[in-house]
Design brief:
The complex is a heterodimer of chains A (303) and B (140). Chain A has helices spanning 12-27, 50-62, 84-91, 107-114, 130-144, 162-171, 191-200, 210-213, 233-239, 247-250, 281-299, and strands at residues 40-45, 66-69, 97-102, 119-124, 151-155, 178-182, 203-207, 219-222, 258-260. Chain A has 303 residues and is of the alpha/beta class. The chains are: A alpha/beta (303), B mainly beta (140).
Chain lengths: 303, 140
């Protein structure tokens, strides 16, 4: 059964095709309004996420399909100690496609092995979040008109930020991109991502300073320093405010910079930046919904 | 020093000097009822010094475990005092329940019945990664 746990589960040509379909959805939403009629999408979320869940549900409804959901995981069968394998086996009988978020890394790998319908990973701990990446690269392609030859700055929590890891994995498929990793020392990229960059032979460097990197950037990907990724409160409090993007810091940025953020933000991007034409993070959520529509259709064999 | 030859059993040869106890532990040889000899620091033309483990019974050996410890070990099966077959090892592509994932955020930390599976990602550096969470496995 075809599932998408990591962005690596999709070939480059499939990703390009998904972006083309998403562009067509943008031009022609009517054409897709009944594509998933009589199909059911189940969302199983073991940790809270309003926007990803709603994005998937909205995507399925826009395709004419239906949605079933588990309530909060605290009151669902997970709280009774049911294994992931059992849960997905059962839900495979109720839905045509499953979307899962889980706080434990690798949970969707287990789920995808047991599911008898396609399964999409909607985020597993600090590991992968492939559909966020699909949203990110479509936003980059639409705003920069290319996915090659860009200088991409990734800023904030690069250690636990799963969106960053997935985005790097995806962008490494496109040639001539340069990467600047902007983070405090405590939240640098994990070893396996550093290896992936080295192995790909791309140009990349690390810095603790957002200001010095700014003038070079074509894309700035901001991330939230997430409280739930820390083992202790003191570390979180010390690091959460280190990288805040405001109008002042943007003064040295290129006029066609694209600022992305997986959202939700806490305070890492000042609200004053929202009106700047370079801010693309709300538009990114629309791109995400359209890419999820395209992915649901791909996995259901509709496109 | 003399150690009796194996009549019906297994001789694990060309173990890197000092690693025989690792082999003993990983293969759980301490649980066997038969005679097991650990010979350390033998002279070897090929290796300088080597360890040898002799097991006086033809038991099933997990060659993946052995290949993971050291792919250069040779396994000699002896029957009626004669060499039955000789196996050369390789670093296995997959390790199942040989090493455990230490990542506290890994799904294996909460779903106890899951096998701990590691995939070989770099043969040269002998690096394995958890099949679920991608965290690199600890060294032996």
């Amino acid at each position: 059964m075809r599932s998408v746990v990591s962005i690596l589960d999709l070939s480059t040509s499939e990703i390009n095709e998904l972006m083309n379909v998403a562009d067509d959805i943008e031009r022609n939403p009517e054409f897709y309004r009944s594509k998933c009629k009589h199909k059911i999408l189940a969302t199983i979320f073991y940790e809270p996420s309003t926007r990803t869940r709603l994005s998937f549900e909205s995507a399925m409804l826009s395709l004419g399909g239906s949605v079933i959901s588990t309530p909060d995981s605290k009151i669902s069968s997970a709280a009774k100690g049911e294994s992931i394998s059992d849960t997905v086996r059962v839900i495979s009988n109720y839905a045509d496609i499953i979307v899962m978020r889980h706080p434990k890394e690798g949970a969707p790998v287990v789920a995808a092995m047991k599911a008898t319908v396609p399964l999409i990973n909607a985020g597993d701990g600090g590991h992968f979040h492939p559909t966020q990446t699909l949203a990110d690269i479509l936003t980059i392609r639409r705003t920069k008109k290319t996915l090659s030859g860009l200088t991409i700055g990734l800023c904030g929590d690069l250690m636990f930020g799963r969106t960053v890891h997935s985005l790097i994995e995806a962008m490494l498929r496109y040639p001539d991109n340069k990467y600047i990793m902007i983070s405090p020392n405590e939240l640098k990229l994990p070893e396996y991502m550093r290896e992936a960059l080295d192995k790909a032979g791309v140009s990349w460097r690390e810095t603790e300073s957002l200001e010095t990197a700014m003038p070079e950037l074509d894309v700035l990907y901001m991330t939230r320093v997430q409280k739930e990724r820390f083992f202790n409160e003191e570390d979180y409090v010390r690091l959460k405010d280190v990288y805040i993007l405001d109008r002042d810091k943007l003064k040295t940025a290129k006029s066609d910079l694209a600022i992305l953020h997986p959202l939700p933000r806490v305070n890492e991007i000042s609200v004053a930046v929202d009106d700047d034409p370079r801010a693309q993070y709300f538009y990114q959520t629309l791109c995400g919904k359209q890419m999820r529509m395209a992915l649901i259709m791909l996995l259901l064999g509709i496109i | 020093m003399n150690i009796d030859g194996v009549n019906n059993g297994i001789v694990l040869d060309h173990i890197k000097a000092g690693e025989s106890m690792l082999v003993y532990d990983y293969l759980k040889l301490g649980r066997l009822k038969c005679c097991v000899a650990i010979i350390q620091n033998c002279q070897s033309k090929k290796m300088g010094l080597k360890d040898i483990v002799k097991i006086d019974e033809l038991i099933d050996i997990d060659l993946d475990v052995l290949g993971y410890i050291d792919p250069h070990i040779t396994v000699n099966y002896v029957k009626d005092g004669k060499l039955l077959k000789k196996r050369h090892l390789a670093l296995p592509e997959t390790l199942t329940n040989v090493i455990k994932c230490k990542n506290p955020r890994c799904i294996t930390s909460t779903e106890q019945e899951l096998p701990h599976v590691f995939k070989l990602i770099d043969r040269e550096k002998q690096i394995y990664r958890c099949a679920y969470c991608d965290v690199v496995g600890d060294n032996k």
